[in-house]
Amino acid sequence: MTEGSVQTLLARSFALLAREQPQAHERILMPLAGLAVALRIDAEHFTAAFTSTQAHLRAVDGQESITVGTSRRTILAVLDDRRTLTEAVLSNAVEVVGPLELLLRAHEGLIRYVHGAVRCAGFPSLLHQLRLTCADDARAQHSRERKADARG
Predict the structure, then answer these.
(1) d(CA 40, CA 47)
(2) DSSP bridge pairs for 46
(3) In whole angstroms, what is the distance from residue 125 CA to residue 146 CA?
(4) What is the pLDDT of residue 51?
(5) Is the pLDDT of residue 149 over 70?
(6) Would you tell me how many other CB atoms lie within 10 Å of the CB of residue 14?
(7) Quick one: how far is CA 102 from the chain centroid?
């Protein structure tokens, strides 16, 4: 995991929730216990697996019950209220696959995660780091496009 990766930021967010909002952390894990969610966020692929006491991140191993694919830009658009999660799913900016019962549990866990996150003093820093990774990606993409144009 690199410092600016979504996987690193998510791991730090779970640790932050456990430390700053332990009751919220416990509530988050209730509907998620036993789930493993394969996440594809841009080029990153990893799994968030949950027990009744912790969330941990690991490599994808094919045993996941839900898969979610999206981009950091879409995550920020939802967090910044420029698009709703429903709009993102319906437009395929967020792709979610899994049995309905498990998707409902994951959605409840996500709602509880957001409710806990807004109460953590450390979350603005994590959000700022996510924004920086998006800006870095945009600069890198622009640089690749300029080089391709120069060769063209």
Answers:
(1) 9
(2) 39
(3) 32
(4) 97
(5) no
(6) 19
(7) 17
